[in-house]
Specification:
Elements lengths: L1 H33 L5 H8 L3 H7 L3 H16 L10 H12 L3 H14 L6 H27 L9 H21 L6 H6 L11
Helix pairs in contact: 1-4, 1-6, 2-3, 4-6, 5-8, 6-7, 6-8, 7-8
Length: 201
């Protein structure tokens, strides 16, 4: 009897997990094509999911937006960049991918804007803060690698340089969203390579 109940629970959990993944996949397609919806109800209508069903899997619009962005990043399946790739080159790669999905760049911009309103969006704030911390750590380590082999000046503070690279990338992509014909994100980021070149082989 207990085994039967356990099997039923397992099937129910698997079905719920699959349904949640399906909703996330539809939302990614929606955001990539049209940008971020105004409300949870509007998003549900656009992807053909009732508001009640959407609320069952995602307690709030913030939770849905964060999970869509996380799912999108997992789906990219980008292989780890080789050690000789510079901090700036990592951001150039990201910008190149993002140029094909402006709606998801808009989603990222929405998340970072919402994060500034911490009291109204605590979940989003926590997600964006942690993402920035991880990205700064990753880029700073690339810069330290360059410094150890003499390709980057030793007096550059890696954590500050990492924050600068992120700020440049995010700011350029925001400008590109608003005026895509006037801003070349990769070309502008390439200027930073003069300050932070890749390590020499």
């Amino acid at each position: 009897m207990e085994k039967d109940s356990a099997k039923v629970r397992e099937r129910s959990y698997r079905k719920a997990s699959e349904r949640r993944a399906e909703i996330l996949s539809r939302a990614i397609e929606l955001f990539a094509d049209r940008g971020v919806g105004a409300s949870l109800r509007a998003i549900g209508d656009a992807i053909g999911v009732s508001h009640a069903a959407l609320r069952y899997y995602f307690a709030s619009r913030d939770e849905l937006l964060v999970e869509v962005y996380r799912a999108h990043e997992r789906m990219e399946h980008e292989p780890p960049a080789p050690d000789e790739v510079s901090a700036v080159a990592l951001m150039e790669r990201s910008a190149e991918r993002n140029s094909e999905i402006p709606g998801l760049v808009e989603l990222y911009a929405t998340l970072t804007t919402d994060a500034l309103q911490g009291q109204q969006h605590p979940l989003t704030r926590s997600f964006v803060q942690e993402r920035f911390r991880q990205l700064r750590t990753r880029l700073a380590e690339r810069i330290r690698t360059g410094q150890r082999c003499g390709a980057i000046a030793a007096d550059i503070e890696p954590d500050d340089a990492a924050a600068l690279v992120i700020a440049a990338s995010d700011g350029l992509q925001l400008q590109w969203l608003l005026d895509p014909d006037a801003v070349d994100v990769r070309r502008a980021l390439a200027l930073l390579e003069r300050l932070l070149p890749p390590p020499e082989g």
